[in-house]
Specification:
452 residues, alpha/beta
């Protein structure tokens, strides 16, 4: 039965999926805007470190005030309302919550929330993909040990890419490449929160209206978020990552099968079976018509004459050889689609993307010449950006993961463009996230380190 049919059954039997949300910022708000209209789901609790800010976002998306009158989670369950408070531990510990949606965007806090949810037997839909890029293989292993489902969030590009890859492989195709689109020029990796809106194509007024965080959006623009999302896809699908970072080849939708071929056949790939990101801008800054900036894609190979003939007969748009075909979704709706993951996890016991190995990693790279004593300010900030590398290369370089490069003091100067290493920083604060990552580095083979 389709997920919607299963949701209707849960609604008819008065046995809804009970959900707890941690983080009611921009992405959490997008989920909040849809969940009241989803049958068979009861959002019983929202935890946010700033209840007033959460209340503003709830009002923005149209939540009725009477739905937020619950004095406790038990009261919310009994009366069909929602509890709102700061206590995330109460959410993950409550016996009758089925699924926790982690939506804080803070990878250090997210790992705490996710592991605590596992400890309490909860399934988790993780919208904070930064945490997954840092230690997704560890989180997946912990979920399996706890007998729960851990999942990337549908609507965000990694889960949508995983879905396209799964479609292709289930159909019997070899996946040549898969990825997302992005507005990219090389100098964007030096962007800061002060320059982001001009590069991004929004006015400060539009950003303020949407409650958009300049540091978070700068992490998209400067290449950090595309690297993070590509690492999550690689670790979930087994696709390899470029040896020295994403290439961002410019292409229209029509040209994706042309550029996402191996170099030996005229494309940009080092080999078949890789993640990549397509730029919506030519190298001189011109906008490419009919771009894939907000979408996802997968390129497959027609490896027999019969399949290539089928491509031709059904007017499938291929590269000039007729061998490579790209399927795509031109848009993604981010938090508006998270309910698909909640339903899949709760009703089918299936993740919409989960790490199965350690193939890609995102390392910290200096945006400018950094001096000893400076404090790193993490993804989207003024000091470092995140670069996708093979996990094996990251370990060889002793690279500091971008997710841990926040409020960390440098003890060495690091030139612009150089990878920041663990040896370059005074220390990283102790946290479950740091310990999880260090555990992966101590026993990389146990977490599926790729030797490719």
């Amino acid at each position: 039965m389709a997920l919607y049919g299963k949701l209707l059954q849960r609604a008819a039997s008065a046995n809804p999926i009970r959900v707890g949300l941690i983080g009611a910022g921009k992405l959490g708000s997008m989920y909040l805007s849809q969940v009241l209209k989803t049958p068979g789901v009861h959002l019983v609790a929202i935890a946010d470190r700033s209840v007033p800010a959460a209340q503003v976002n709830l009002a923005r998306v149209g939540w009725p005030a009477e739905r937020l009158q619950a004095r406790s989670i038990d009261d919310a369950i009994a009366n069909g309302t929602t509890w709102l408070g700061e206590d995330w531990q109460a959410v993950v510990a409550h016996a009758r919550i089925d699924v926790v949606v982690e939506c804080t965007g803070n990878p250090i806090a997210a790992v705490d929330h996710i592991l605590a949810a596992f400890d309490n037997g909860k399934h988790v839909v993780n919208v904070t993909v930064e945490a997954d890029a840092m230690c997704g293989p560890y989180l997946a292993k912990q979920a399996a040990s706890a007998g729960v489902v851990y999942s990337l969030a549908f609507g965000d590009q990694p889960a949508l890419i995983c879905d396209l890859v799964d479609w292709a492989r289930t159909c019997g195709f070899e996946v040549v490449a898969a990825g997302r689109g992005h507005k990219w020029l090389p100098h964007f990796n030096q962007s800061t929160p002060e320059t982001v809106w001009g590069h991004y194509g929004l006015t400060p007024e539009q950003a303020a209206r949407g409650g958009l965080n300049p540091k978070m959006f700068n992490s998209f623009l400067d290449g950090t978020k595309p690297s993070i999302e590509s690492a999550a896809v690689a670790n979930a699908t087994g696709l390899q990552v470029p040896s020295d970072g994403l290439l961002y080849p410019p292409a229209s939708v029509a040209d994706i099968p042309f550029v996402t071929r191996p170099r030996a056949e005229g494309g940009v790939l080092e080999r078949k079976g890789m993640v990549e990101v397509i730029s919506s801008l030519e190298t001189d800054g011109r906008v490419i018509p009919y771009d894939i900036r907000m979408g996802v894609w997968v390129t497959v190979e027609g490896d027999t004459e019969y399949i290539r003939n089928c491509f031709e007969e059904y007017n499938a748009h291929t590269d000039p050889s007729g061998r490579y075909f790209t399927l795509y979704k031109r848009w993604h709706l981010i938090g508006l689609e998270v309910g698909v993951s909640v339903a899949s996890v709760a009703l089918r016991g299936e993740a919409t993307g989960v790490a199965s190995g350690w193939i890609g990693d995102v390392v910290s790279v200096a945006k400018r010449n950094l001096q000893a004593g400076e404090v790193l300010d993490g993804e989207g900030g003024y000091t470092v950006w995140g670069k996708l590398l093979p996990a094996q290369t990251s370990l060889h370089k002793n690279a500091l993961p971008i997710a841990l490069a926040h409020e960390v003091v440098l003890k060495n100067a690091v030139p612009q463009g150089q990878v920041v290493t663990w040896d370059d920083v005074v220390r990283v604060d102790d946290s479950r996230a740091a310990r999880a990552r260090q555990e992966m580095q101590r026993q990389p083979q146990a977490y599926g380190l790729s030797e490719a």
